[in-house]
């Protein structure tokens, strides 16, 4: 396994079908939002869909969806070359280079490998912050991952409208304070919001994430799932979070 690693990198076991991923703390490592989004998607798709993950980073969502679904194909689209190279090594580490394709490209001009009306499912854990908002990180990779510098919500919706099959599904995780803008833009691009689930750090705090499902050319009709609570009052994970991570709750 050491042959797969470069300076500063480590291998993390995902606790799912023996899958592993290469991470580097100097870049943008995956967090709970990617895990929750993959869980949210896997509960709602059936059959063997063709899936594409936008802004795939080091490939965490393609790996988790491979372990949780029976997808016919999974593609990760990522613009940053260092992350693409690392993601491809993670796929090789898991012997999944044929099953999961990592493409370097810009969602605004994805290239001829990605064809219109090709995908059943588009997934994205996009940058949460507007380009002009918040403190920028000194590391360009982290700044791109956190701020809408190279990829905005509207870019994702333009891509999804063009690349999704009719009635195909778009799944996002984002901040609740951006939800009004997201719903308005989704309807503008003919993607109807069908399901929401809010994620709360604890029962006494405001939601800090929202999981979103939309459908291309879908009919109006929005449902909300029961809230997902991350921590109990004593600071331990709730049982649902242990279940999502596939971990056993300590006795």
TrEMBL record:
InterPro entries per record: DNA_methylase_N6_adenine_CS, SAM-dependent_MTases_sf, Small_mtfrase_dom, tRNA_Adenine-N(6)_MTase
CDD domains assigned to the protein according to its UniProt record, in alphabetical order: AdoMet_MTases
Every Methyltransferase small domain range: 36-133
Cross-referenced Pfam families: MTS
Protein name: tRNA1(Val) (Adenine(37)-N6)-methyltransferase
Organism: Acetobacterium wieringae
Classification of source organism: Bacteria, Bacillati, Bacillota, Clostridia, Eubacteriales
């Amino acid at each position: 396994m050491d042959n797969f690693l470069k300076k500063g990198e480590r291998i993390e076991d995902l606790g799912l079908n023996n899958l592993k991923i290469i991470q580097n703390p100097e870049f943008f490592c995956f967090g709970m939002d990617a895990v929750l989004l993959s869980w949210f998607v896997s509960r709602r798709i059936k059959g063997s869909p063709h899936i594409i993950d936008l802004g795939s980073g080091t490939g965490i969502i393609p790996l988790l969806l491979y372990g949780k679904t029976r997808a016919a194909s999974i593609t990760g689209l990522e613009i940053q070359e260092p992350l693409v190279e690392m993601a491809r090594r993670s796929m090789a580490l898991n012997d999944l280079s044929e099953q999961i394709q990592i493409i370097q490209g810009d969602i605004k001009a994805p290239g001829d490998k990605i064809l219109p009306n090709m995908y059943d499912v588009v997934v994205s854990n996009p940058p949460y912050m507007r380009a002009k908002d918040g403190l920028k990180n000194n590391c360009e990779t982290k700044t791109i991952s956190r701020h809408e510098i190279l990829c905005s919500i509207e870019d994702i919706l333009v891509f999804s409208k063009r690349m999704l099959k009719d009635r195909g599904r778009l799944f996002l995780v984002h901040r609740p304070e951006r939800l009004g803008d997201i719903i308005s833009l989704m309807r503008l691009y003919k993607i109807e919001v069908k399901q929401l689930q809010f994620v709360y750090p604890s029962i006494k705090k405001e939601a800090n994430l929202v999981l979103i499902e939309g459908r291309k050319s879908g009919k109006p009709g929005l449902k909300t799932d029961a809230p997902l609570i991350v921590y109990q009052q004593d600071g331990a994970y709730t049982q649902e979070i242990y279940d999502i991570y596939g971990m056993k709750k300590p006795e």
